[in-house]
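Could you show me some protein's one-letter sequence and the numbers that encode its backbone in two labelled lines?

___
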Amino acid sequence: MNILSIQSSVTYGHVGNSAAVFPLQRIGHEVWPIHTVNFSNHTGYGDWKGPLIAASDVAGIVEALAARDALKRVDAVLSGYLGGDDIADVVVETVARVKALNPQALYACDPVMGNKNSGCFVSENIPPLLRDKVVPVADIISPNQFELGYLTGVEACDLDSTRRAVEAAHEIGPRTVLVTSVERPDVDNTKFLEMLVSDESGSWIVRTPRLPFKRNGSGDVTSALFTGHYIRSKDAAEALAKTASSVFGLLEMTYEAGSEELTIVQAQEHYAHPALQFEVVEL
């Protein structure tokens, strides 16, 4: 299948397209990346070089793909970190063009805006654009708990409130909602990390060990792999199981290596052959 991935790119390390493209390729998809920024490294280092890509340039690449007759062969559009706020319009327009040519195509939006610990780390213009313009046209969204609360106006702080927020997200438009970090007071969140997925066929949750570190880009890999598995099988529980296994394998390998960046290439067997060691429980 062909995935058009509109995200950031870095030269050093793995976030955005630099995290998403190879895992998707390793599970058998053709990936056509369009970059929204071209930075030396992710901004968590405190300094970086490189440009935000102008919306007109992003639109120009899409137009050139259309000239190649390629848009009708796109099976999914995947978006992540947008960079400039004017790119939101380009993403929405691209999704509309793809779906007009291929009504079976899906749009998966990772609504990158922040997290509980750091708050919003994008331009203040981005969150309302995601909430009001981008997410309503998405088929799949993959927010963390903080982002889910912003998008829906429902504070997600335990399992019940997270499920209410997920239902509110469905009402906005997306048929499939993957919550990439579920924390709740009845679980030791220092030891475990949970993900939850919901679509029209039901809701499921999976729990994995929480490793004592964080690395930028893990959410980008999670969203990419879930999208890649889901568009192939249309089975949310199966996609969740494979994604949880693969991402844990990646993080465990990164932790054991003591690497400051995700060991994306070294962990490739975890994508191609997920161990499926974590139980996915229907709610």
